[in-house]
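REQUEST ID: PR-0412
SUBMITTED BY: lab tech R.K.
PRIORITY: routine
TASK: structure prediction, single protein chain
INPUT:
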Amino acid sequence: MPGVDFETLRRQITLAEVLEALGFTATTRCGDQVHGPCPVHGSRSLRSRSFSANLHSGRYYCHKCHSHGNALELWATAHHLPLYDAAVHLCHTLGRDVPWIRRW
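STATUS: complete
OUTPUT:
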């Protein structure tokens, strides 16, 4: 099984793209900071602000389920996938080529 170049993937795919692919709708926005219902634990309330993401730094945090990380980790957690499988799935979902490691 070939390896995924996670460093390249993290540079190429933004948190904003992942949030859009997850169907996230921000309830509030202040600059690069967005708040809304958590796509990880499935907040039901459209007024929820438990989830916070900084689009500039590419990091997120949920104050309810305590999930946190970068765009790839968000995709993996929201889809209950290991990181490798999440990377491949995310690239396919976004119509991007998987950045494979070619060392051999």
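NOTES: The beta strands are 3-4, 28-30, 33-36, 51-54, 59-62, 68-69, 100-101.
REVIEWED BY: pending
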